[in-house]
Amino acid sequence: MGTVVMYSSVSVDGFIADANDDPGPLFEWLVSGDVPLDDSGAVKVSRTSYDYTRAYWDQVGATVAGRHVFDLTDGWDGKPPGGIDHVVVVTHRPPPEGWDPAAPFHFVDGVEAAVARARELAGDRLVEVAAGDVGGQALAAGLVDEVRMDVVPVVFGSGKRYFGSVDAQHLLEDPEVIRGDRVLHLRYRVRR
User: Fold this and answer.
1) Cβ partners under 8 Å of residue 25, min gap 6
2) Closest CA to 165 of 188, 191, 187, 138
3) CA–CA separation, 91 vs 79, rounded Å?
4) Per the database record, which ranges form the Bacterial bifunctional deaminase-reductase C-terminal domain (predicted)?
């Protein structure tokens, strides 16, 4: 089974969006470079960020996200972001009316079931869990092997927390740190 990674861009003070779900400048590092990160050419990063991020993206076989994020993005128009093969949506509701059942999205009730389904779909590849409430639930359930964050030099002051509402201590190993332009890429193994 593949490694389960909790991931997102995050402000220095630990937020993935403001109170209105606006990520603001958190994604500026994705358009501040000269190296295309994907085939669209719209996402351009520094060479250092490309080497780190592209290698990570290429390993991800499935992403777990909450229904809130799915709804905010309009289900990415039925195409998983970043070239991911599958998205597993944690939800207590059915797919939206008119949703194409052939789209590589899987609607699952509960974080544990969602991570299990994502692991099946990803095989030996990585399972990415979106940070925020779903990621925090997965961490609290002991399902996360690694925490990755792209720390952007901005302070939000309030908003949606990277770890959601986690209310217990979780120890991480020493970080791997990569400095890109306008971003620090941090990678921590979860201590067991």
Assistant:
1) 152, 154
2) 138
3) 18
4) 4-174
Q: Which two tokens stand for residue 154?
A: 């901005």
Provide φ and ψ at 72, rounded to 5°: -60, -35
Distance CA 37, CA 146 (A): 23
Residue 24, phi then psi, degrees to nearest 5 = 50, -125
CB 149 within 8 A of CB 10: yes
Domain ranges across the chain: 4-189
Residue ranges, the chain, pLDDT below 50: none
From CA 10, how far away is CA 25, in angstroms rounded? Answer: 10
Q: Are residues 126 and 2 in contact, defined by beta-carbon separation less than 8 angstroms?
A: yes
Alpha helices (H) in 60-151, listed in sequence order: 67-72, 111-122, 133-140
Q: How many CA atoms lie within 13 A of 74 on its CB side?
A: 1
- pLDDT at 82 (0 to 100): 78
Per-residue confidence (pLDDT) for residue 134, from 0 to 100: 97
Q: Which of 106, 113, 156, 160 is nearest to 138 (CA)?
A: 113
How many angstroms separate the CA atoms of 116 and 124, rounded? 13
Q: Which residues contact 72 (CB under 8 A, 6 or more apart)?
A: 21
The pair phi, psi for residue 168, each rounded to 5°, is: -135, 160
For the chain, the C-alpha Rg in angstroms (whole number) is: 16
Continuous segment of H or E residues that includes residue 50 = helix 47-59
